[in-house]
Amino acid sequence: MFFLRQGHLALCLIIALFTPFISFAATQSQTAPFTLPPLPYAVSALEPAIDTETMTFHHDFHHRTYVDNLNNAIKDVPALSGKTLEQLLAIASTLPPVIRNNAGGHWNHSEFWKMMAPVGKGGKPSATLEAQIKKDFGSLDAFKERFNKAATSRFGSGWAWMILTSSGLQITSTPNQDNPLMDVAEVPGQPLLGVDVWEHAYYLKYKYKRADYLNAWWTVVNWNYVNYLFEVAKRRRGT
């Protein structure tokens, strides 16, 4: 009985560790009709950094709306029905605004949930990622300072990102639901970490204090997932 329980615990641990990565692959290959992914943790799991009420509205209403709007819009353009989210993002400049905005919103949020984890569960930057951060930004603290500046200085609604490009890691921000995978991005690259700075992501708890939201958000960053994305991005680039 002890060995059965031990084996069961090991299986649960494996599932917990790899579920976000499995869902990453599923998100990338999915075509219409798109579906709302479940949160990879309880809706209250990111307390106190992100409150339960915000998470509930953000996932169950805002993200669901992007998915529903995207599916409804794609019905009117059958030629796009067989394209994955990343394929849609790659031709964003040619898409009707309703598809571009909602495809971006769906992709951004699907990744955002996985880029966070309960306090104490997100790990830390891997040795290779930390070395790259130090090479490109000087230190982890300097990186966070520049990332926060990109997020706080984004006028209105949008996102801040750490991305991998041919020249290394860069920090950028995008308006509305755009992201660096889009062919309209000012600084294109593979997103490794992103934060939502639309007011619906933080206003219920932090009101107008975006900087306070960002400081709390760092406590729930899922570095385990960021490390994984970094390795995948490097393999894609052959580095």
Automatic annotation (TrEMBL):
Coiled-coil annotated residue ranges, if any: none
Pfam families: Sod_Fe_C, Sod_Fe_N
Domain Manganese/iron superoxide dismutase C-terminal, chain residue ranges per copy: 126-227
Cleaved signal peptide residues: 1-25
Keyword vocabulary terms for this entry: Metal-binding, Oxidoreductase, Signal
Top-rank EC class of the record's enzyme: oxidoreductase
Keyword Lipoprotein: no
Residues reported in the UniProt entry to bind Mn(2+): H58, H109, D196, H200
Cellular component, GO, one term: cytoplasm
Catalytic activity as recorded in UniProt: 2 superoxide + 2 H(+) = H2O2 + O2
InterPro entries per UniProt: Mn/Fe_SOD (IPR001189), Mn/Fe_SOD_BS (IPR019833), Mn/Fe_SOD_C (IPR019832), Mn/Fe_SOD_N (IPR019831), Mn/Fe_SOD_N_sf (IPR036324), SOD_C_sf (IPR036314)
Domain Manganese/iron superoxide dismutase N-terminal as annotated: residue spans: 34-117
GO MF terms, alphabetically ordered: metal ion binding; superoxide dismutase activity
Domain of life according to the entry: Bacteria
EC numbers for this chain: 1.15.1.1
PROSITE patterns with a match to the protein in the record: SOD_MN
Known function: Destroys radicals which are normally produced within the cells and which are toxic to biological systems.
Family, per entry: Belongs to the iron/manganese superoxide dismutase family.
Protein known as: Superoxide dismutase
